[in-house]
From TrEMBL:
Pfam assignment, any one: P5CR_dimer
Catalytic activity line of the entry: L-proline + NADP(+) = (S)-1-pyrroline-5-carboxylate + NADPH + 2 H(+); L-proline + NAD(+) = (S)-1-pyrroline-5-carboxylate + NADH + 2 H(+)
Recorded name of the encoding gene: proC
Associated pathway: Amino-acid biosynthesis; L-proline biosynthesis; L-proline from L-glutamate 5-semialdehyde: step 1/1
Source species: Halorhodospira halochloris (Ectothiorhodospira halochloris)
Name of the protein described by the UniProt record: Pyrroline-5-carboxylate reductase
Amino acid sequence: MPSNAQLAFIGGGNMARSLIGGLLADGYPSDQIRIAEPNAERRDMLASELGIVPSASNTDAATDAAAVILAVKPPIVRSVAEELSGLIHKQQSLTISVAAGVRMQDIERWLGEGVAVVRTMPNTPSLVRSGATALLANAQVNKAQQDLAESLMRAVGQTLWLDVEEDMDIVTATSGSGPAYFFLLMEALEDAAAEQGLDRERARLLVLETATGAARMALESEDSPGQLRQRVTSPGGTTESALNVLNDHDFHTAIGKAVKAAADRAEELGNLLGEQ
Ligand SMILES: NC(=O)C1=CN([C@@H]2O[C@H](COP(=O)(O)OP(=O)(O)OC[C@H]3O[C@@H](n4cnc5c(N)ncnc54)[C@H](O)[C@@H]3O)[C@@H](O)[C@H]2O)C=CC1
Ligand SMILES: O=C(O)[C@@H]1CCC=N1
């Protein structure tokens, strides 16, 4: 990506830290990244972890930025957008939102007409450059800005552009929140192995290697996850016994309901904030 593009992260929380960590690991120069973070303790932590000293001022961080990344919680996006609107207009910066649920039309309304906005949904594995990000651009985004957003997110993982904004809530429920579902499965599997008598250290190693191996195999295989699962499941064997229990507990249905709840919450956040 163009390493001369000045990036300003507004909000230095979990998602910003993952994106910045991934960018630095990809070789992005740290002097081209600014962070605004109101919490002093958090600023100290980011400075020691990332080697970038954050500012307490959003406008200081955003000054001269080619891209301003709004990485605050959804209810805070409006105040930050309104605060930075004048500066963003003056500099013609690209605004990139990572906020769940917050709709393009509202970001545009808060920033004022004519601002180039890319709405994105990244995820925290961006920290290790294994992120998955969906992007959506408004009509004001020019080719160079689209390339900038694409290369920023591509530096930390895979990207895909959406055709319709409605898909963003499903993406949020799938890949935005998705790492938590896999971490929960890892926790549960580790606990189960420990309860059966395996020491924690060995249990964790086996669980993490199994998760990595399964993901890598599914990524590299022509076969679907369902076909790969069947190949682990010998008739009358151990896996079948385990999967029968998961089926008895409606595992598949539970995941479906969980993802729907997340997508519904994203829509609800969008509705709530859109009314403001
Ligand atoms: N955590 C995740 O896995 C993902 C989060 N997101 C989105 O990223 C955004 C941030 O989420 P997290 O990083 O998880 O939250 P977080 O709470 O860890 O980070 C938000 C940061 O913004 C700071 N902040 C609060 N008010 C501010 C203001 N007025 N100006 C500047 N900074 C301010 C807070 O001190 C905090 O450090 C949210 O909109 C969320 O929907 C998107 C994808 C994944
Ligand atoms: O839980 C959340 O609301 C954020 C958005 C996707 C992941 N974390």
